[in-house]
Structures are given as C-alpha cells and as structure tokens.
Amino acid sequence: MPSRRLHRRKKKILLATAVFLPLVVGVILLALYLRLGPRHLSEVERRAIAGRFRETIERVGGTQVWVKAPPYAAFPPARVDSAAEVLVMPATFDTVLTAVKRRAEGEDLRISIKITQAKGRWRLVDVHLARGREPAGRWRLREVGQLRRAAVIIDDLGQDLEAARKLLALPYPITFSVLPHLLYSAVTAEEVHRSGREVMLHLPMEPDSSAQPGKGEIRIGMRASEVERIIAADLASVPYAVGVNNHMGSRATTQVALMGEVMAVLAERRLYFVDSRTTAASVAFDAARRKGLPTFYRSVFLDDTETVTYTSRQLREFRRAIEGQGAALAIGHPYPTTLTALARFLPELEKDDIQLVPASQLLQLPEVAHVTPPRPTNP
C-alpha cells in the first residue's frame, strides 16, 4: 500500500511538471524575446529617447557642452545611423560620459562605447545605443579645448512686419530688438516670441546729433522717476522683451549718472543690457556691470553700408573677433542685403564649431564676465 501511494504521488508530480514546466519556460523565453529580440523602435520612440539623452547631457554639462543640432529642426538626425555630435569641455567630459551611461541604463538600452584620441590629445567617444537588436541612436562626444559662441542682434524692428517675417524664416537663434511705440512693435514682438526667438527692447536714447531716435527716448537731464516711467512705457509696447540695447544714444550713453539710473530700472526688472556702442566714449557697459546686470557690447556693426559685399566682409571680421576672445556679438538691421549675407554666412559658423546663441545665453557665459570693450585712447 505505501508503495502504491508513493507511485500515485510521483505520477501527480510528473503530471504537474509536464503541465507547468513548458509554461514557465515559455514565460522565460517571452521575457528574453522582449528584451533581446528584434522589436521595432518607431521614429517617435527614437526621437523621444534622443530628447531625453539631450536633456541629460545639457543639464549635466551646462555651459561646457554644445549639442550640435539645428535649433528649429527635428532632433535627432533623420537617419538612425547618423550620430548626434556633442562638443564637450575637458572639465566636464567624464561627468557627461557617466551621465550618458546612466541614462542608457535607465532607458533599458544596451550601450557600446568606443574611445579614441582625436587630433592628438582630445578624446572622441562613439556611443551606440540599442534595444535588443534594434538600433536606438548614436552619439559622438568630442572633447574640445574651447567652446566658441556668438550672438547676432537685428534691431530697428517694429517698422516693417514683412522684414521681421523674412528674418524669422532664417532657421537660426537670431535675437530681435524692437523699437517701441511703432505700428508693428507689439505684433512683431509677439510673432518673434511665438517662434521661440528672443525679444529685446531697442531703447531710444539721445544722440550727439540732430537725428530723432523716436518716441520713448531717454534724454540728458531727465529725473530718475521720468527715466523709470519712459522705460516702463517702452517695455509695455514691446511684450516679451527680456533685454535691452540702446538705439542711437551717442550723447546719452556718455553720461554716468543717467546710465546709472537706466541700469537701476533694468536691474529691478531683471533684464540684461547690450551696449550698442554708438560711441567709443560710452559708459553704459560699465554702468550695467556696476548694477550687476548681465551685460555685453557690440563687437561689429554689420551693415553701415547696405551691400552684401560689405556685410559679408563685416561677418568675416565678426568671425575673427569670436576666434580671438571666444565670444562676440554683432548688430545689424533687417535690410535685404543683410539677410542675404547672413543666410550665406551662418551655416559656416556651425561647420567651424562656433555656436550661435540668443543674446541672453551669451551674456550668461562665465568667460564673458571677464571681457570688456576696447577703451578709447587719448591722443
């Protein structure tokens, strides 16, 4: 009897094993297939993954990284086998690479890394990402000794809406400086803001001539309360302005007290200031620094002469200024000749590893805090 019961028990165990073992094996195989098998990644999924990697790289690297991608185009590159290129300064290179590895782990992606030396001493890292056997993206981290940045401001906007729209058609982060109280001031600022570009107030200031800067002018002899009232009204007519540069002002910007009053108003409103330097005797830049504003100055005027040849020559001068000090800012106007020259020149900046950024981003760079405009020399 005991042997018969034992036999029945073994028979039940064998039966249960025969039923449940294939089920367990099937679950394991399904899990392995889902993890390692050929699962297709859609374009939407691939772009979402790339976006999260980009956010991680830019958050960790801060001002010491540049994800080279057109600002207003889809990201990443359209072809799955094309690498998204990232320029990284040496001080943060290892931190960025570690963050990429952790992001891959968090995304449940396999990561393959190849490190080589580029140009003698700088590292070049090729990163291949995959989910199972399906490619999920490629990144190339390129170590560089310096990141060079530039900003281009186009001012005198607000008079001609069509000119602003032509400028908006250029796929670059140009900064738009709008004059106050004009027919198209508000609508220009609103369209620029909707496009994701940056808006500035082009603040009229008294010139050292009979020229008329226009309504909303800052003049010598104004009281502090009047300066505050005028700037408030000017800003109200140019919505979304996050910074200011002077329109004309070759007389006003030489006045220490007046510039101190202007900068006090801008500081209270947390705006930045760019000195257009319509005169070498301007004290506006120094006044802005004393008030703690993010500030910079115009390195090059692009179009004192309205020809493509002249502006192209000035753009080459602009490139030399960028290469000389690592950062520079150019100011131009919405002339057809200027737009033509910019359309030809701006693609060359990226090829030369020069990043075009909004004016506010240029002013926040740590290296810009140590740059000052040329000082006039006494004869």
Task: Write the SSE topology.
Elements: H1 2-36, H2 43-61, E1 65-68, E2 83-88, H3 90-106, E3 110-118, E4 122-131, E5 134-143, E6 148-157, H4 161-168, E7 175-178, H5 185-194, E8 198-205, H6 224-237, E9 241-248, H7 256-268, E10 272-275, H8 284-290, E11 295-297, E12 300-301, H9 308-325, E13 327-332, H10 336-351, E14 354-356, H11 359-363
Parallel strand pairs: 2-5, 6-7, 6-13, 6-14, 7-8, 8-9, 9-10, 10-11, 12-13
Antiparallel strand pairs: 1-2, 3-4, 4-5
Helix pairs in contact: 2-3, 4-5, 6-7, 7-8, 9-10
Please give a handful of descriptors for the protein shown.
single chain, 379 residues, alpha/beta, Beta Polymerase, domain 2, TIM Barrel, 9-stranded parallel beta sheet, 5-stranded mixed beta sheet, 43% helix
Q: In whole angstroms, how far apart are the ends? A: 124 Å
Query: Strand pairing plus helix content: what structural class?
Result: alpha/beta
Q: Which fold name fills CATH's third level, the topology of the largest domain?
A: TIM Barrel
Question: How does the overall form come out from the CA principal axes?
Answer: elongated
Could you say how many structural domains there are in total? 2
Number of strands: 14
Helix and strand sequence = HHEEHEEEEHEHEHEHEHEEHEHEH
Name of the top-level CATH class of the largest domain: Alpha Beta
Question: How would a textbook summarize the main sheet?
Answer: 9 strands, parallel
Helix content: 40-55%
Number of helices, counting only DSSP H or I runs of 4 residues or more: 11
Summed over residues and divided by their number, the pLDDT gives a mean of 90
Question: What low-confidence regions span 5 or more consecutive residues with pLDDT below 50?
Answer: none
Name the CATH superfamily assignment of the largest domain.
Glycoside hydrolase/deacetylase
Beta content comes to 15-25%
CATH architecture of the largest domain: Alpha-Beta Barrel
For the CA atoms, what is the radius of gyration? 29 Å
